[in-house]
Specification:
Elements: H1 5-8, H2 12-18, H3 23-35, E1 40-44, H4 46-49, E2 53-57, E3 67-73, H5 79-85, E4 96-101, H6 111-119, E5 126-130, H7 131-144
Parallel strand pairs: 3-4, 4-5
Antiparallel strand pairs: 1-2, 2-3
Helix pairs in contact: 3-7, 5-6
Length: 149
Amino acid sequence: MTCLGAYWVQHRATRQFFHDPGLLEGRLLDALGELADGTLHVEDWPCLDAWDMALTFKAQEPGAEAERWVVDAKDCSSPALLARGFRCDPRVLARRRIIVIPMHRLRTPGYRTDLERELQGRVSGVEVLDEETFLRQATVRARQAGGTR
């Protein structure tokens, strides 16, 4: 166990931001885990945490390509700082690239608008959704793929 000694004495903040999922990420993974039934596969931290998760929905027709979304769960009090620090990693191929923000951030007037404005010119093809909208869209898409929920 001496090889793991350094891990066990890491500062909690290091573990939280480099190993353990955050609260938002945990909520999303738990909710998506309830949907995963053969129509949806959830992969945690694809390409060594290029994104927080990748969702692959079963193809709707035989021979068709499965649809993949990649998701980054972000909870930052400053939309400007979040946008400036966000990197869109292209290693994971996906139809949709989504930043999911927690519901409590929507209580800050203009948060989503400010985030979307700050992302312009920094990244392209990235959507910003709140957690309820994201989970609703994932549920609908899983049903379309053949789920019954």
